[in-house]
């Protein structure tokens, strides 16, 4: 065999090995469960006596906070991060096996922090004392789950009065007693004709009035259950679910529902589920995963996969497109509106490479863009943006349409991050909470 033929065969063999290896790694990422990294603990014993229910001055009871805007009510945060932030407590038991990845963010009311988790066969729910990290109660139910990005829950719980509602990736909607964790009722959207999407049910439940509302898909794209009994109140629409939280919007002095499903954005009556209008918006994979932004009679929404973003001016009877462009393509990282400007990450949320941007809401004009803080998620508190990139690093930004202004940063605020740290940071009652798989870390953000 001639020498050049051997060289070609060697090169081809190396290329094949690399293609197979990276193909297998991509398959594991898309279809498998991200493995745990860092410290792992067994579930601890519950505390001996239940502390009374309390409320805080800046609770975070549901997805994106009290007004679904990604904004905390906290004031007086520490802005000098040169020496880091003081860690109040840390737990490492939310996932109980190497292949039980769970991504749900926590919610907080007073001394009760609720966060879902997973073991080999069960969805888990933990109630942790937000003051000291002790386990107040835990709940579980058996749930068969696929493994694409892990079998654990993605949806964030919703605290309402003395109950908390959780939604598992396999379609289990469960109502728990907030004080002691008693399971009050449990339903599965598949029993109403729902169909699980490729990456599992992820839409955070919405509690509005006397109903709890989720996306079910199939013959029950949107389902409203009685929040006390779990009885189905109405079902609406057909089609494939999205991965975005349903939120409310006041249109012409009437509260309406905004449902961002796989094929677009729909406006519904909360009383009966009647569809008022639908703005078509279909991505390559049917993934609409960000939360729409509402400002007066304007809705801003964005998706990845080359879709971009648009702003709609809406009424009860329809909508008009104010503008549409590709300045922001947020895959599943929610932007935040501050003083007429939109701030957020744009790009694919698999690699820590992306753009953080500022857009003008009224025109869609890109004010600035930076690649200095990677790709990640963001939250707002006391006039500042806290950004967490996929490596677990934190950045404190001063949101200013004139340019990118970094105030501080903390490297490795979450330690031992091997897979993307997707879960959004939240701020409640002076504390910053970071969740990564089995880890939950509480930092002091406001001095005593």
How would you characterize the overall build of this protein?
The chain is mainly β and 448 residues long. Helices cover 6% and strands 39% of the residues. It has 1 helix and 33 strands. The strands form 8 sheets. It has a 5-stranded mixed beta sheet with strand order 1-27-28-29-30, with no helix packed on it. Strands 2-33-32-31 form a 4-stranded antiparallel beta sheet, with no helix packed on it. Strands 3-4-5-6 form a 4-stranded antiparallel beta sheet, with no helix packed on it. A hairpin with a 5-residue loop joins strand 9 (172-177) and strand 10 (183-188). The longest helix has 29 residues, at 3-31.
Distance between the termini: 78 Å
Report the radius of gyration as a whole number of Å.
22 Å
Briefly note the structural class of the backbone.
mainly beta
Oligomer: single chain
> Largest sheet, described in full?
5 strands, mixed
Helix content: under 10%
Beta-strand percentage?
A: 35-45%
Shape: globular
Mean pLDDT value = 94
Strand order of the largest sheet: 1-27-28-29-30
Q: How many strand elements?
A: 33
> Counting H and I runs of at least 4 residues, what is the number of helices?
1
- Uncertain stretches: 19-25
């Amino acid at each position: 065999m001639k020498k050049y033929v051997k060289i070609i065969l060697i090169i081809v063999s190396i290329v094949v090995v690399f293609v197979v290896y990276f193909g297998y790694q991509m398959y594991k990422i898309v279809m498998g469960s991200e493995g745990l990294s860092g410290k792992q603990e067994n579930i601890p014993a519950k505390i001996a006596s239940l502390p009374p229910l309390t409320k805080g001055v800046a609770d975070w009871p549901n997805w994106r906070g009290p007004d679904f805007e990604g904004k905390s009510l906290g004031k007086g945060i520490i802005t000098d991060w040169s020496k880091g932030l003081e860690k109040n407590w840390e737990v490492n038991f939310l996932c109980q096996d190497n292949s039980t990845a769970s991504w749900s963010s926590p919610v907080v009311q007073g001394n009760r922090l609720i966060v879902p988790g997973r073991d080999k066969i069960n969805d888990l729910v933990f109630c942790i004392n937000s003051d000291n990290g002790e386990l107040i109660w835990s709940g579980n139910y058996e749930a068969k789950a696929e493994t694409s990005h892990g079998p654990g829950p993605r949806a964030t719980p919703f605290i309402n009065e003395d109950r908390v509602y959780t939604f598992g990736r396999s379609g289990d909607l469960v109502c728990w007693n907030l004080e002691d964790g008693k399971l009050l009722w449990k339903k599965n959207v598949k029993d109403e004709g729902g169909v699980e999407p490729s990456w599992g049910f992820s839409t955070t439940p919405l509690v509005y009035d006397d109903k709890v509302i989720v996306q079910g898909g199939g013959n029950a794209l949107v389902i409203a259950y009685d929040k006390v009994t779990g009885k189905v109140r109405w079902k609406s629409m057909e089609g494939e679910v999205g991965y975005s939280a349903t939120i409310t919007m006041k249109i012409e002095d009437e509260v309406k529902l905004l449902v961002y499903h796989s094929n677009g954005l729909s406006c519904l009556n909360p009383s009966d589920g009647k569809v008022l209008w639908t703005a078509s918006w279909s991505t390559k994979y049917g993934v609409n995963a960000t939360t729409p932004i509402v400002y007066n009679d304007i809705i801003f929404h964005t998706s990845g996969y080359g879709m971009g973003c648009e702003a709609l001016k809406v009424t009860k009877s329809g909508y008009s497109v104010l503008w549409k462009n590709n300045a922001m393509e947020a895959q599943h990282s929610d932007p935040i509106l501050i003083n007429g400007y939109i701030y957020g990450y744009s790009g694919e949320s698999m690699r820590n490479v992306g753009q953080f941007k500022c857009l003008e809401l009224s025109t869609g004009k890109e004010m600035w863009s930076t690649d200095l803080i990677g790709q990640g998620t963001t939250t707002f508190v006391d006039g500042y943006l806290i950004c967490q990139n996929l490596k677990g690093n934190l950045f404190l930004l001063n949101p200013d349409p004139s340019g990118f202004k970094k105030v501080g940063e903390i490297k490795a605020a979450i330690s031992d991050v091997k897979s993307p740290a997707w879960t959004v940071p939240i701020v409640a009652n002076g504390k910053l909470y970071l969740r990564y798989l089995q880890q939950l870390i509480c930092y002091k953000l406001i001095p005593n």
